[in-house]
Structure formats: C-alpha cells, structure tokens
C-alpha cells in the first residue's frame, strides 16, 4: 500500500472538469474506494490502499457527475504482492520475545548496509508493519508478560535502534510494551537508549528520551487515518486524496 498509482485516460474518457473519477478495489474480505486528483486532462493520480492480504483484486475506474448515475469506465485486475519488507515485518512481529530469533537478527549488525539503504529499509518495513493485522494481545516484549524488567534479554526495540531505524522505532514506541522496552538491558547490559547514545544516533536518542518528540518524517506522516467500526477513512495530505476502506 501507499504507492502512487497513475491512471491514463483514453481520448473518449477525457471529459469535463465536473466529472469526478475514483477507483474501487474489491478484495476477498475488504473493499477500498479512493478519490483521484487530475494531473492533466488525460491523467489521474491516487494512492494504492494498504490491503489485508496478498491477492489479486478487481479494480474499477468509476466516473461520477451530479445528477447522473455512476459510470464504470474500465475494469482491471490489481495484484497485492508479498515483498521483502512485508516478510521482514511479519518475521519481526512473530519473533517478538523469541530470544533465539532476536539474537539471530544481530548478524545484520556485522554487515551494515549503506545509510541510504537503511533509510529505504526503515521506510518500507515501518510501512509494512502499519499494514499488518497484529493480534489484539500483541506486545513489543512478546507474549510472556510475567518476565521481570530486570531479566536481561534482546527486544525488538534493541533490533530497531541497533540498525538506526528511526521510523520503525517510533512505530514500536506507540505499541503495547514499547515504552517498557526502553529500560530493558540485553546480555551486554545495553538498553535501547544507551545503544542509541553509544552509536551516535542523535535523532534516535532524542526520539527515545525527549518528551513530546515528534514522529520522524516519512511517507506515512503525510497520511491521517480515522477508524470507525468496520470502516476507516484515510486522507493523504501529499496528494490530497481520500481512501475509504470497508470490510466486505
């Protein structure tokens, strides 16, 4: 989700300015409707919805005009695929609290990718995490909430801070157990806060320690979502488009 979709209109579809185009995505359990913005007489732009599973859905381009019935202009299939970022987010979400898996992730620290790759990874994995359907009882510290804060262990927060993933760290901070993870020491005696300081991640350290620290800039910060029961409405301020999602 959250990538830009461009719609190219054919000559006969280039109509008056009072016609409003929107896209309807119909999946197996969820339906999305997105408004569009007109780039020029022949092109429209919108944001792809974050879908609940990887599948091929039907997408319809619809045209609406006051006083006229809604017209389906074109239909096409659209595929939501499972990419590496989705796999990574799913793996991390599943291994929260799993010491063997979290210790395994530390090998990434020995082959640090370039800063530009880290930034790209951070954006994509944090976005994938936002689209995961996490269980209601999911916690950054894992399923076993009886463990004392004094027991040394690796956490998802250590992982995110060690790699300098600002946006993923912010996301985890908002989740149950996120703030609690900040005071947990790993087997080397490091907390996520001391790791950020030790590695010179100044922005990350501020994010973890300053009260009222703001969310890092990202594609997702351009979006504001309101949930209501089985519905959600998302406004993407960057493009000025709206997205309505409803469970079918």
TrEMBL record:
One of its GO terms (cellular component) is actin cytoskeleton. Transmembrane segments: none annotated. GO terms for biological process: adrenergic receptor signaling pathway; positive regulation of canonical NF-kappaB signal transduction; regulation of Rho protein signal transduction. InterPro entries: Ankyrin_rpt-contain_sf (IPR036770), Rho_GEF (IPR051632). Gene3D superfamilies: Ankyrin repeat-containing domain. GO terms for molecular function: MAP-kinase scaffold activity. PANTHER family: A-KINASE ANCHOR PROTEIN 13, AGAP007712-PA. This is AKP13 protein. It comes from Nicator chloris. The lineage of its organism: Eukaryota, Metazoa, Chordata, Craniata, Vertebrata. The gene is Akap13_1.
């Amino acid at each position: 989700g959250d990538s830009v979709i461009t719609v190219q209109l054919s000559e006969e579809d280039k109509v008056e300015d009072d016609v409003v185009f929107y896209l309807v995505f119909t999946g197996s359990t969820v339906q999305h409707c997105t408004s569009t913005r007109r780039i020029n007489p022949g092109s429209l732009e919108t944001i792809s919805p974050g879908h609940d599973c990887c599948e091929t859905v039907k997408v319809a381009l619809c045209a609406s005009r006051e006083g006229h019935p809604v017209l389906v202009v074109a239909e096409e299939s659209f595929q939501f695929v499972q990419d590496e970022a989705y796999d990574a987010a799913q793996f991390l979400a599943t291994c929260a609290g799993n010491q063997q898996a979290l210790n395994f992730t530390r090998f990434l620290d020995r082959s640090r990718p370039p800063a530009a790759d880290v930034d790209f990874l951070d954006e994509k994995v944090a976005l994938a995490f936002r689209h995961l359907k996490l269980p209601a009882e999911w916690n950054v510290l894992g399923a076993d909430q009886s463990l004392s804060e004094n027991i040394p262990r690796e956490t998802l927060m250590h992982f995110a801070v060690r790699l300098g993933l600002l946006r993923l760290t912010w996301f985890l901070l908002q989740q149950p157990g996120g703030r609690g993870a900040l005071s947990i020491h790993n087997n080397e005696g490091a907390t996520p806060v001391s790791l950020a300081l030790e590695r010179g991640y100044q922005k990350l350290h501020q994010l973890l320690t300053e009260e009222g620290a703001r969310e890092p800039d990202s594609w997702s910060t351009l979006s504001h979502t309101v949930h209501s029961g089985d519905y959600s409405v998302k406004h993407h301020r960057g493009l000025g488009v709206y997205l309505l999602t409803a469970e079918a």
